[in-house]
Amino acid sequence: MEIALISDLHANIEALDATLKDIEAQGVKKIFCLGDIIDYGPNPCEVLDIAIARFELNILGNHEEALMMVAEDFNERAMRSVDWTRDTINDPDVPRDKRHAYWNFLDGLAKSRYAKQGENLFLHGSPRQPTRDYVFPKDVKNTEKMQQIFAGFKGGVRYCFCGHSHIPGIYTAKGQYAHPGKIKGGEVDLSKFDKLLINIGSVGQPRDNDTRASYVILYDQRVVFRRVEYDFHATANKLRDIKRLPSFLAERLLVGK
Predict the structure, then answer these.
(1) Burial of 70 (0-12, 13-18, 19+ CB in 10 A)
(2) How many CA atoms lie within 13 A of 148 on its CB side?
(3) Angle separating helix axes 96-109 and 76-89, nearest 10 degrees
(4) How many domains does the chain have?
């Protein structure tokens, strides 16, 4: 088994293209996306085209949920981005068949809040709430929260893969966190852990003070974290040119926050 796990693309075509090239260079064919394909970024249609054509599994993220259903806990700036994304997908200049394909795909995601394969669980947030529950490194001090999260490892699940926080790393049931930068070679031997929550980080909007796209490759009994350089200045310049979008969406790409 070799699966590339990606998440939080956020309509960043430059980051996605670079990541796909790296995945291909590693010889990996199968790609699972754990949500937030769209929103925040300047190229929702182009990224949707790739998701529809190339990803074997697509999981619902909170931004797809916001676009299709309800934008729970979204502030005013985030709602501006949701509205712009919706209008862009609905643009009359986009061919009608493509618009229909986009909305049919997004509608289908509402039925894909998580996926289980053997000992592996794939979702966007956490087992407590698949689309909206954030897990941050500081949460290892919140014993009750971590116990609730790992209580959601049911039906033989040992390893849960998620995104949402945009901060990569591994969380143990004993209340420990490790950033991939502190793990030798970014490689984790899964067999050494009874249970593990693995945040794969973000392709399109990293937030761990590293501007490079983040993803992981899942092998039979190991996970390898990978970082990929991309032209974030190009993405930021596109965002600055879209006056309806908040400027901070561009600026945060320059610092990875």
Answers:
(1) exposed
(2) 12
(3) 130
(4) 1
Q: How confident is the model at residue 81 (pLDDT cuts 50, 70, 90)?
A: very high
Q: How confident is the model at residue 75 (pLDDT cuts 50, 70, 90)?
A: confident
Range of the domain at 82: 3-254
Cβ–Cβ under 8 Å, residues 105 and 15: no
CATH number for the domain spanning 197: value is 3.60.21.10
Rg of the chain over CA atoms, in angstroms?
17
pLDDT category at 1 given cuts 50, 70, 90 is: confident
Encoded tokens for 47: 């990224």
pLDDT digits (tens, 9 = 90+) for 23-68: 999 999 999 999 999 999 999 999 999 999 999 999 999 999 999 8
